[in-house]
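can u do me a favor
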């Protein structure tokens, strides 16, 4: 996205109508350039009112990311993070993975207003409208190698769920291995990429995408059921407040994970397990499918599924929920809304 589109957006965040002529005059560009910039913003999922004779106005208030506001909300923790806000980038994970070998510091954070090539697991695209999501990456260095970091994505999920609790989201669940869901719909996703020696030291770049406000245009691009944080909270949100809460909880969880691993977080993750005691199909990396009842996770983060052959452990794959009500350990169905 071009720089001019971001400059137009910044002027529109006051919530007032701005004519194309007034925007062009304020930015010292032509009205045609303003028209093109507005087109970029709407193509990126921003919802605008256009009224003849009055100009353009945002449909709803929008909070642009502001480093100073985020750091004020972080309080004493602000000095622990090296926070950078970028207007537009292909992928925050890609950028931080490039910087990591050059010595990017512990707890470096890159947050973007707009990602042109945001991605989830297996290279799938992550769709988010400008100003309608939080898309950021966090660098964390570990003394251990990648082989000792099993369960990291689940630990990150716990941190996100704790932050959502503080925002007033009731019933957010965790879907193994890397999603946060609310009422069965995807709210956030986690993508972790690693560098380093097998025995350590190592580093993880933790990418997080959180839907804050999904426009109709963005919803049409998403190939699964999704929801957003404002729907779950029932109110408009300041993304600076949300990002500060997420970073604070991530700091606490990652500090503990670096010392003790996933095991101390296991019971909390299981309390939030969206598919516990539900019939699921696990899609393995080689595309094979195995079915059973999700029973929880092991201390190393492996998914435990009860199959006809016994309890199986899965360290990779994806879960699809099969129709049906929860199933108890003895095979009987649990009464309830299911």
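np, heres the sequence
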């Amino acid at each position: 996205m071009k720089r001019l589109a971001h400059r137009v957006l910044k002027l529109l965040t006051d919530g007032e109508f701005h004519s194309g002529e007034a925007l062009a005059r304020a930015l010292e560009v032509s009205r045609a350039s303003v028209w093109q910039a507005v087109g970029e913003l709407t193509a990126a999922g921003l919802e605008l009112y256009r009224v003849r004779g009055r100009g353009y106005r945002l449909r709803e208030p929008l909070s642009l990311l502001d480093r100073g506001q985020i750091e004020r909300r972080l309080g004493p923790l602000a000095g622990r993070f090296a926070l950078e806000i970028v207007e537009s980038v292909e992928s925050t994970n890609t950028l931080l993975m490039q910087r990591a070998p050059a010595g990017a510091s512990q707890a470096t954070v890159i947050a973007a207003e707009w990602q042109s090539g945001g991605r989830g697991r297996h290279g799938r695209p992550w769709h988010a409208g400008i100003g309608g999501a939080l898309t950021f990456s966090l660098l964390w260095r570990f003394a251990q190698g990648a082989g000792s970091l099993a369960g990291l994505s689940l630990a990150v999920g716990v941190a996100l769920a704790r932050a959502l609790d503080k925002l007033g989201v009731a019933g957010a669940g965790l879907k193994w291995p890397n999603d946060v869901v609310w009422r069965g719909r995807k709210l956030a996703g986690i993508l972790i990429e690693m560098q380093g020696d097998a025995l350590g030291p190592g580093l993880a770049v933790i990418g997080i995408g959180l839907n804050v406000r999904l426009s109709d245009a963005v919803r049409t691009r998403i190939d699964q059921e999704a929801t957003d944080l404002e729907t779950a909270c029932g109110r408009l949100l300041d993304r600076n407040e949300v990002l500060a809460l997420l970073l604070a909880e991530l700091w606490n969880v990652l500090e503990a994970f670096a010392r003790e691993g996933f095991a101390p977080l296991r019971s909390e993750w299981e309390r939030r397990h969206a598919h516990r005691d539900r019939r699921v199909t696990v899609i393995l990396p080689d595309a094979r499918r195995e079915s059973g009842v999700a029973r929880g996770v092991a201390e190393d983060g492996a998914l435990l599924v009860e199959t006809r052959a016994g309890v199986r452990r899965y360290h990779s794959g994806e879960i699809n929920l099969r129709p049906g009500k929860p199933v108890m350990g003895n095979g009987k169905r649990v009464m309830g809304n299911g």
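The domain at 275-321 is CATH 2.30.30.100 (SH3 type barrels.). hope that helps!!
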